[in-house]
Each structure stands twice: as structure tokens, then as C-alpha cells.
Specification:
Chain lengths: ~270, ~475
């Protein structure tokens, strides 16, 4: 069990939770995730790490309410407990030691890029962060990202804050303007990560994205999270979650992410309605 | 030779039609009368070869003798000297390849039902608790870390706790039992039995740490270093599922057996939405492979409501790996068997969901390295089997996570940790391994045998280390 020490509502649908998990905090590296289970009837779901503090023995995660399980997690308050937390899982992302990295985050993906930005800045790599959301009130974690980026750019689909348009469009503008990016990392909805890949491909910009497929054990045992990369089947839980964006079969990843859409609706129905 | 009834005393089972919709244990177990009848079929031979067929060396002749004279408590004690998990072994051991294969009456007669009797004794013992063993304080100073709580780990843990060591078992999942928990379905091994056996180990002082992914949450170096464990036993199993590498394998509705069974057994997806984890409910299921896991998967499919549930296997009935009993039960429940058939691709609908399996037929040629006859594709024999759920049950490879994150562990070309099969010693001092992680996918009982041998070797290693220390002092 992991005690919920602190929570913060980031948007009406997004919540930040600080959990007591000293062993995870001690071993975590940027790019890794945990598998959690809320209660004895709960699913095992993967969540990217937004922060980890070995000294305090805590980890921080950001969860967006999209279905039953994420709803249960978002309902947790300080003093509550998360039944199971296992991790840190996945391979740490390979980060450069020099150059100028651009980190692109869509929606709650802003949480997952925070550890990357922090580590890159410690390595004295220049860091540009692009965070995007549909509208101003859904832009999250600027307070966390500001101190770990040399440049923080915001964009919204409706133009209510910062650049008007998608993150990939802003990235395309910057690249067209000659921005000297040497590496790109993107975390967010699959469609957004694919758009980023399409923008960086022609520039030959090395791009890694974090896939978030359905997982079960998270330790390489089941293969639920398989993705095709360069024509080969990989398990996101042990080979990823970060993969070369220009080698991923995004169509397949999108199809597989919708495996249980019907069941998700059933799970959300009130018990009496079944 | 006394007169021996030619066939095994029948095992009462649930009705084959009724049980298609139930998850309850299919084999109900012997009554006292049946157990006595079966025990009395044993001729108590001078040289009990059956015991040589048992990977953990259960004193079979003696426990059966005690059953025959109605000393069930005594029989339980005899079994417990060699087997800490008898209720499990009595249910899942492939007895026809082990103890029962060596039974003296085998030949003209059916062998003595050793597995059924072991189960009877274990169940009798569970129903007649003798006021649980007192939790003993560890008599030895050393602590041992066991990695993985499957059959190898639980056996090693039990043996080492009985020798007086402090034992902690580290399990990556949220529940203890390994393959006994996530792999073997309720109708073949009720989870209440796994729970009881784990409780038994707790009462011996064994501690369990769940959600502990060794190599990630804590490393072997830390266990042997600052955490103060004197030895580590790695029993992490052969966790990584094999796929076929044919087109369409990543369509929705194509599962590895590990995923399918874990959803159903560990996560209780059969009770969705009461439990939150879903699983696709098949109308037409195809299970590829014919081992124990394939039989479990096809029987799970029947219980999830499949109108047709098929086994597709590239060889014939004679080469299949499944236990005869489970094969028979699957057939009774209506499973269909497509022998000499091999999938070449999976076909999907517009939505990316599997809708059929394209196969070719095979014939058997000469034996291959495994000693089984090699399947040869029959040209022009393409056939398509409709299926909205496919389970690939072709075995597993060792999980690379632990060897990858642990320095100094030698692995072979298959990714198995190299060990001395007699002791479980690895290339690294103080680190032992056994079960599927060392041998590749095998059986529950062979993993238990490996756990036992490693426990013995760890005990010897630590005693020698102490003696060596005295000598130097």
C-alpha cells in the first residue's frame, strides 16, 4: 500500500498525486512508469512518473479522468491509500549529454516530460518545452516545467493561451525558422505524437515518443502492450515505453488502444443500469 | 501378487455439460471409501520405483500404506517430509509422466492413482487442521531472499524456513503464487488452496513482499549488500510469451496465453464488470498449441461462453504435451481438436479485430531434436477457421528482466540462467536459481524439485561459510 500524501487538481479532469513509495523513488529514472491498482477489484494500469524524490521517498503522478479506473484514482485524497504500486518499470529513456532538446507535451503528457527536462538541464543540455492543450484551463504544470526549461512555449487549439494551434504546428514553425534542435521527445495522445513524428521526420530530427498501450503485469509477462517498431514486435513495458517515433506503426498502436472501448462503457455504467 | 483391480478408482467430477458454465473445481476429489479402495490397489513393492519418478522424492509407498490403514494424519505427515505443497501437486502434477509412469502394476493394469491419493490426503489434512504450527523464531542469523513466489520459490522458502532461516519472498505481482495464481485456472486449482499453502508458509515465519519487481524495485546487489541477505534464490519463471511472428498477430482479440489466463485467473475478468479488468468473450475461440496451458485456455474459453472452442496443433494427439486427464476433460466439455494443423496468418475485420485464422494441414515426418515427429506442410491444404478470439499457447521464454539488471549472471543462448542442476548455483556466489528461469518452461513439480535442491545447497553454502570463517579466526 502506498499512502497518498498530497493531491492537487490541475484541471477539472486532471489530478496530481504524491504517493509514498520509497523504493520506487530511489530507483526511478526519467522515462519510467509505475503500475498501480486502486482496490481489490481494480485493474492494473500504467502511469508515467512525473516526479520522484529519493530523499523524501515519494513519487508524483498525473492522472487524467477518462474511464472508471482513472476516475477512481482521481478520487483519492490525502490520507487515502493506493492498494498497489509497482515500479519503477520500463527502460529509462536515453537522453543526450549535449545539444538542444525540444520536449513536446500534449495534455497530461506534460507530467511525463518533467523528469526528462530536469535531467537534461542537469546535463547542461538546452531545453525547449512545448506544452499544448485544447484550451487555456487545460494547460498544466507550467509551474513545474518553468524552472527546468530554458524556454517554455504554450499553445492551445483555440488560441486562448499562447500560440494558436497544435503542438506539432508550433514545432513545425520553429523548425522552419531554423531552430537548432538536436533531439526531440514527445509525450501525449498517440495522434499528437504521430503528428510530431511527421513534422520531425523530414528534418531528420531524432525523435523518441512514449507509448502508453494497454498493460497488465508491466514486467514482460503478458504481451498485451506489444507494438510494432521497425517491423518487429516489441513489448512497451520492457523494451519501452520510449521508441523511435519514425519507426513506430502508429496505425496499429491506435487500433490496439481501442481494444476494450465497449467494455469501458460498461464499466462506467451505474450498477443498477446494467 | 495380490489381486489388483485393473483400473484406477474413478475420480468424481462435475457434470461435463453443467460445468461448461461454472468455474468451480471440476475434479471433486476422492471420498474416504474411494481413497481406501485406491490405496489398496498399491502392492507395496519392495523397491518403489514410483518414488524415483518424483522430482521431490515423496515417500509414496509409505504414505499410501498409511492411507490403506486409514491413518490419514500419518499419511499427511509422511508427504510433508518431502512436499510442502501437496494439495497443489496432487492436482497439477503430470503424474502419468512421473511417479505413475514407474508404477509396478503398470502394463496390464492402470497404475495406482498416486496423484489422486496425494490430493485426498492433502484435502483431508486441510479439513482436519491440527492447530497450526507455531510460528518459530528464526534459529539462524542469516536471512535468505527468494525472488518469485511460484512453485520453485515457495518450496525453497518453506524448506529454508524449516531449517531456521529468516526468509523473505519478493513477488512482482500484487498477489503471491506465480503461475499457480495467474496461470492455472480456478476449475483446476482453486485459489483458496494456494492461499492456504501460502498461509502455511507464513506460519513458518516466511515473509512476503508483493509489488517488488527484483531488478527494478530492488536489485540483487542491494539484497546481498545493504539489505543484509546472505543468499538469493531466483525462481522467476519463464515469463516471456512466445509469439509466432505471422501476419495479423497483433490484431485485437489475439492474446498470449499468459495474458488471457492472467486476465481471467489473477484479475478475475470472468466477473467483469464486478471486477474492473475486461477480457474479450469469444463466440468462436481458437487456441494454438496442445500443452497444459492450451488445455486451460480452451476450457476457459468454453466457460467464457464460446460456442465453439478449438485446439489447433501442428502435430497429432500422440505428440501433445498436455496431461491426459486435462485433455480428456477438455474433450468432455466440448473442445474441438484440429490436429496436424498450423496457422499461417490471422485475418481481421475493418476494425482491426481478428475474425479468422488461416491454416494449412501438416503430416508428420521423422523425429526432430525434441524426439517428436516433425510436422511437414501439406501443399494446397489451406483452410480458414472463423474465430473472434485467438490464444497463442506455444510456451514461454525466460523473462530477460532479471539477467539484464543483475551483473555476473551467466545465461545460455535461450536466455536461461546457467546453473548447476544439482545445486542451483549460478555463476555468482550466493545466488542460486531454479525452475523455469533455469530450465525453460517445465512443470510445477520440477520447479519444486529445483527449489528444494537449491534450499539444501544454500544451507550447505552458509554452514560452510560459517565454518570457513571460524577456521580463519
Amino acid at each position: 500500500m502506498a499512502a497518498v500524501l498530497d493531491t492537487r487538481e490541475l484541471t477539472p479532469v486532471t489530478k496530481l498525486l504524491v504517493l509514498e513509495a520509497p523504493l520506487v523513488a530511489r530507483h526511478a529514472r526519467p522515462g519510467q512508469f509505475v503500475i498501480v491498482r486502486v482496490n481489490a477489484h481494480g485493474e492494473r494500469v500504467p502511469i508515467s512518473l512525473t516526479d520522484f524524490d529519493p530523499a523524501a521517498g515519494t513519487i508524483t503522478v498525473v492522472v487524467q479522468r477518462v474511464g472508471k479506473t482513472s476516475g477512481l484514482i482521481c478520487a483519492l485524497e490525502p490520507g487515502d491509500e493506493m492498494l498497489d504500486v509497482a515500479g519503477p518499470l520500463g527502460r529509462p529513456v536515453e537522453l543526450p549529454t549535449e545539444g538542444h532538446a525540444v520536449l513536446v507535451a500534449g495534455g497530461f503528457g506534460a507530467g511525463a516530460i518533467h523528469p526528462l527536462a530536469r535531467e537534461l538541464q542537469e546535463r547542461l543540455v538546452l531545453v525547449t518545452v512545448i506544452v499544448g492543450a485544447r484550451t487555456a484551463e487545460l494547460v498544466i504544470l507550467r509551474d513545474l516545467l518553468e524552472p527546468v526549461s530554458d524556454e517554455l512555449l504554450v499553445c492551445t487549439d483555440d488560441g486562448s493561451l499562447g500560440y494558436r494551434g497544435f503542438t506539432a504546428q508550433l514545432l513545425a514553425d520553429r523548425l522552419a525558422g531554423g531552430a537548432p534542435f538536436t533531439d526531440c521527445f514527445a509525450v501525449g495522445p498517440v495522434a499528437m505524437m504521430r503528428a510530431v513524428a511527421e513534422v520531425t521526420g523530414p528534418h531528420g530530427l531524432h525523435t523518441l515518443v512514449s507509448l502508453d498501450p494497454i498493460m497488465l503485469d508491466g514486467t514482460g509477462m503478458c504481451g498485451a502492450c506489444r507494438v510494432t517498431v521497425s517491423g518487429e514486435t516489441k513489448f512497451a513495458c520492457i523494451d519501452g515505453p520510449f521508441f523511435d517515433a519514425h519507426a513506430i506503426d502508429f496505425d496499429e498502436a491506435i487500433v490496439r488502444s481501442k481494444m476494450y472501448v465497449d467494455e469501458e462503457h460498461v464499466a462506467l455504467e451505474p450498477v443498477g443500469a446494467r | 501378487m495380490p489381486l489388483v483391480y485393473p483400473t484406477k478408482t474413478a475420480m468424481p467430477t462435475l457434470d461435463p455439460v453443467e460445468r461448461r458454465a461454472r468455474w468451480d473445481e471440476v475434479a471433486v476429489g476422492y471420498t474416504v471409501e474411494r481413497a481406501l479402495a485406491e490405496a489398496r490397489r498399491c502392492i507395496q513393492c519392495q523397491d518403489p520405483l514410483c518414488e524415483q519418478g518424483c522430482p521431490v522424492g515423496v515417500p509414496i509407498r509409505e504414505f499410501i500404506r498409511r492411507v490403506a490403514v486409514e491413518d490419514f494424519a500419518g499419511a499427511a505427515e509422511v508427504i510433508r517430509t518431502r512436499n510442502v505443497l501437496p494439495a497443489i501437486c496432487g492436482r497439477v502434477c503430470p503424474v502419468e509422466h512421473q511417479c505413475e509412469a514407474r508404477c509396478s502394476v503398470l502394463g496390464r493394469l492402470e497404475p495406482v492413482g498416486i496423484g489422486r491419493l496425494e490430493r485426498f490426503v492433502a484435502d483431508w489434512e486441510r479439513a482436519h487442521p491440527r492447530g497450526g504450527a507455531a510460528r518459530e523464531a528464526a534459529r539462524r542469523a542469516e536471512k535468505i531472499a527468494i525472488v518469485g513466489s511460484g512453485p520453485a520459490g515457495l518450496t525453497a522458502a518453506g524448506d529454508l524456513a524449516q531449517l531456521g532461516y529468516g526468509v523473505t519472498v519478493f513477488e512482482a505481482l500484487h498477489a503471491v503464487g506465480g503461475v499457480l495464481r495467474y496461470g492455472i485456472p480456478e476449475f483446476r486449482l482453486p485459489k483458496a488452496i494456494v492461499d492456504e499453502d501460502v498461509e502455511g508458509l507464513r506460519s513458518l515465519g516466511v515473509e512476503f513482499e508483493t509489488n517488488a519487481v527484483v531488478g527494478k524495485t530492488v536489485t540483487v546487489d542491494e539484497l546481498l549488500g545493504e539489505l543484509g541477505y546472505s543468499a538469493v534464490f531466483l525462481g522467476t519463471g519463464a515469463g516471456s510469451p512466445r509469439f509466432m511472428g505471422i501476419p495479423g498477430e497483433n490484431l485485437k482479440g489475439v492474446y498470449s496465453a499468459n495474458e488471457y489466463l492472467t486476465r481471467v485467473n489473477l484479475m478475475r475478468a470472468y466477473s467483469f464488470p464486478e471486477y474492473d479488468t475486461p477480457v474479450k468473450r469469444p463466440t468462436r475461440a481458437v487456441v494454438i498449441g496442445a500443452g497444459d496451458t492450451a488445455m486451460d485456455a480452451v476450457r476457459v474459453s468454453i466457460r467464457l461462453g464460446a460456442e465453439e472452442a478449438r485446439i489447433v496443433y501442428r502435430r497429432s494427439e500422440n505428440e501433445m504435451g498436455a496431461r491426459a486427464e486435462d485433455y480428456r476433460r477438455a474433450a468432455e466439455e466440448g473442445a474441438i481438436f484440429e490436429w496436424l494443423t498450423v496457422p499461417i496468418r490471422f485475418l481481421g475485420d475493418d476494425d482491426g479485430r481478428v475474425r479468422a485464422v488461416e491454416c494449412v494441414r501438416t503430416r508428420l515426418g521423422d523425429p526432430d531434436d525434441s524426439g517428436r515427429r516433425r510436422p511437414i506442410v501439406v501443399p494446397g491444404s489451406e483452410t480458414t477457421i472463423e474465430a473472434n478470439l485467438v490464444v497463442i499457447a506455444l510456451g514461454t521464454n525466460p523473462n530477460p528482466l532479471l539477467p539484464q539488471t543483475t551483473a555476473g549472471l551467466t545465461t545460455d543462448e535461450h536466455g536461461c540462467i546457467v546453473t548447476d542442476p544439482e545445486t542451483g548455483e549460478t555463476s555468482r556466489a550466493g545466488v542460486y536459481a531454479g525452475g523455469d528461469i533455469a530450465t525453460g518452461a517445465a512443470t510445477v513439480i520440477s520447479a519444486m524439485g529445483a527449489g528444494r535442491r537449491a534450499a539444501t545447497a544454500i544451507d550447505r553454502y552458509l554452514r560452510e561459510e560459517v565454518n570457513h570463517g571460524d577456521h580463519l579466526a
